[in-house]
Design brief:
Metal Binding Protein, Guanine Nucleotide Exchange Factor, Chain A, three-stranded antiparallel beta sheet, eight-stranded mixed beta sheet, 11 strands, 1 helix, binds zinc ion, single chain, 139 residues, mainly beta
Length: 139
């Protein structure tokens, strides 16, 4: 990818740039993702944390033990509440980005879905995408 990846929250207080390769993206149907997005599922993109830079604002964070049993820290805009990043302290090299926060969401092509056991009936996703009943990436 030659294009600089940029994005931010709804109000514009938090802005980020990413100069690495976009990693795999997936749909997550777990309960925590449903709660934190306020929607049926989350679309997360795995990034190299060293290549992600906040260029405006600061995030607030909330840490919780996820359904996987791992500690997960979720970061969001303190002004407008938009969820932005998810970090797993056990895997500090990665950060998972909320795909909808990208300036150009078409950069993202979700490859699969996880935690389909928890999916709600009104979360319809292309059944051609492979699914995993629980966690594939152990975060
Ligand atoms: Zn904001
Ligand atoms: Zn999830």
């Amino acid at each position: 990818m030659t294009e600089l990846v940029t994005g931010g929250c709804l109000c514009g207080y938090v802005r980020y740039e990413y100069d690495g390769e976009l990693g795999t993206a997936n749909y997550c149907h777990c309960r925590d993702c449903r709660k934190t997005t306020g929607s049926a599922f989350n679309v997360g993109v795995r990034l190299q944390s060293a290549a992600l830079h906040l260029v405006a604002g600061q995030v607030k964070s909330y840490t919780k033990t996820g359904d996987s049993g791992n500690t997960i820290t979720r970061e969001f805009c303190p002004e407008c509440g938009s969820p932005l990043f998810t970090r797993a302290p056990a895997k500090p090299q990665f950060v998972w980005l909320k795909a909808g926060s990208l300036d150009n969401p078409e950069w993202v092509k979700p490859m699969d879905q996880i935690w389909t056991d928890s999916a709600v009936s009104w979360a319809y996703i292309d059944p051609a995408l492979s699914g995993f009943s629980r966690n594939r990436y152990h975060v």
